[in-house]
Amino acid sequence: ILPTELFQCKKLRTLNLGNNCLHSLPPRIGELTSLTQLELRGNRLESLPMELGECRQLKRTSLVVEEDLFNMLPTEVKEQLWKVDREQA
Questions:
Q1: Boundaries of domain holding 73
Q2: I need a labelling partner for 31 at 20 to 30 A (CA). Which of 9, 24, 54, 86 fits?
Q3: Does this UniProt record's set of keywords contain DNA repair (predicted)?
Q4: How many domains does the chain have?
C-alpha cells in the first residue's frame, strides 16, 4: 500500500516502485502529473490503472514495466505515452 501523502507530491518527477511486491497501483497515480519516469518492474501487478494516462509528461521509454502489463493498457493511454516520446525526441 502506498502512503496517501505520496499523491500530494505534485512536482514529483521520478518514482521508483520496482520490486516492492505491489499487487495493484492506485488510480491516484494519475494525480502525479509531473512524473517523467516511473519504475514498476518486479511487482505482482496484474494491470495498470487507466489514470496513468493523466501523467502527461510520462514517456513510454520512461515507464519501466513488464511488456504484457503495458499491452493491457487502453489504446488511448498507450498512444498518449508514445506521443510524449515523439514530441520530446
A1: 4-87
A2: 86
A3: no
A4: 1
At 4, list the grid cell.
496517501
Model pLDDT for residues 40-76, shown as the tens digit of each residue: 999 999 999 999 999 999 999 999 999 999 999 999 9
Instruction: Catalogue the E-assigned strands of the chain.
Output: 14-16, 37-39, 63-64
- For cell 498512444, name the residue: 79
pLDDT of res. 16:
98
Tell me the C-alpha distance between 10 and 34, whole Å: 7
- Cβ-contact 78, 59 below 8 angstroms: no
User: pTM for the full model?
Assistant: 0.91
**Alpha-helical regions (H) of 1-89:** 67-72, 75-87
